[in-house]
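The aim of this short unit is practical: by the end, you should be able to scan a pair of folded records and say something sensible about each. We start with the first protein, listed as its amino acid sequence and then its structure tokens.
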Amino acid sequence: MIWEREGKTWPHRECSRFVTVGGFHWHVQSMGPTAGGDGKGGDAPLLLLVHGTAATTHSWRDLMAPLARSFRVVAIDLPGHGFTRAPFSFRPTLPSMAKALSGLLAAEGLRPDGVIGHSAGAAILARMVLDGSVTPRMLVSINGAFMPFPGMAGTLFPYMARVLFCNPLTPYMMSWGAADQQRVERLIRDTGSRLDKPGMTYYGRLMRSPAHVSSALSMMAHWDLTPLNRDLQRLTIPLHLIVGEEDKAVSPDEAKRLATRVATATLHVVPGGGHLVHEEQPDLVVGLIEQAAREVALLPPLS
């Protein structure tokens, strides 16, 4: 993705900036009532938003402004996704993703009071919380991908992703196929989600980028959730599990099982929501995030 071209019409482009840290060239969006031009400063609580595999900051387009009425909000493109560039030698494992993001936060002096992640983004944030690289008061997971695929799928899925990733033609073949917007729409519908036309258009643009597709495949090929799944019961901060009941990408049953294992977990099932429930029902998800923030005194109680 080339910022001078695709970035011209990207959501909240006026809030975007680029930061180079440790060989990563990060795309960062900052918004909030007292945020300065550099995205820092101000006394409002800070929320960090981390998207899932194959998405970008655009995934938060309808949540950032409502949240920014009460919070400083920072969203990033993960390494290799969207407009963030990673070193050629970077292997996007869960620990390495967490370490890279931790390095960005440290360099920028950002200490999130709350962290919010979608799908794989929730797993990255959970790893960071467990490792102590962030110390928020709450973790909000939106259809979080915390558990390995069961049975043979847990072995075959990463293997297939590695096979596809190792073929240099795969990203170009997949991005060529994405030229058919109907294919993109079918892929989104297969996750259980129904997006509006702008939402579908953004994913179509991303899927037509071979570099973005290659990074998403590489992330899936290197992903191992077994250690995280083992460690999650050590979480001591509130874990809010927001789950779309129609999610076809990450089974809602996973969140239900997790809620019984993690003492601090609270489960919120959204009727009719798919994997991209925060894009389908942003107002409802914003309300759940604000409710979670009130419970840990990041916002004052409702009068």
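Turning to the second protein, read its sequence before its tokens, just as you did above.
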Amino acid sequence: MQHELLYDLPAIMNRKLITGLLAIGVLVAIWMFVKQRNPNVIKNKATLLVPDKPEMPWQAPDSGTIPQTTAGDQIRYGRDLIARTSYYLGPKGKVAHISNGMNCQNCHLAAGTKPWGNNYSAVTSTYPRYRDRSGTVETIEKRVNDCLERSLNGKPLDSNSREMRAIVAYMHWLGSNVPRGEKPLGSGISSLKSLNRPADTAKGRIVFIDKCQLCHGANGAGQWDTVTGTGYLYPPLWGPNSYNIGAGLYRLSRMAGYVKDNMPFGVSHGNSQLSEEESWDVAAFINSQPHPYKDLSKDWPKISTKPVDYPFGPFGDTFSEKQHKLGPFDPIQQSKDAKKKK
């Protein structure tokens, strides 16, 4: 009997070991079940399973939130100056006669609030900042005056004037929710893929007649706002009352991106009527027409920093002025990149 017990001892020990392991397994299974029912664990698992929400384009603050205070009055005046620049600062301006009759919102749509409509969302988050065009650190006031002198072919405002302070206050209010140094989705103007050919002004003329002429006129002179008697309902695209050759939109890439998302009137980013090629071509047609002159001798003091589509020499490369104006731009950019690597 004793020999039989000794013989069966390993089997007895194995059964006890297995029983113990099974008991531990059951306890672990119960613990895992309870853990998985923990609300925090369930929440974390759900978070991992749900994809990130797509980034939404910037939206301007509700104008109804502008306070009914002296500061709020300044913001509202700034907004009105952007929307009705001609009324205050145009050829027959109530405050001064320093611009061509266009309104700031002719280029910065909906008083600078439309996504991809050359809006002001990133102005206060990115200024002051260094700009290659001037070779200096620029303030918001400097940037505003650049627009007055170039896009409105006019004269600058005094930085301490009531009008300048109001415009800056409005821009601060618009960008109040944008973190310092950031450019939100939808800010400024879209960048289109470059064409592998020069932009075609003849094709662009056809696009202009088909899509733009109705509002801007066959001669590109725009439509005057006959209701208010000041400013343009649809701005001139060339001629003596349009933007001059120093304006940002005189660069082809800027005008093409602007047209793609905003013209003809009523379209928006992702809901355009023009293809990218049509946008490049019509931009080339518009900018090949006569525009007021501006002395640009102080622009881009460091020649190598000129954008590839800046159409005025001298250049830091061997490409022609015509190619810098109409493209193709990729070979110019590739040449610049190669020089940087050396």
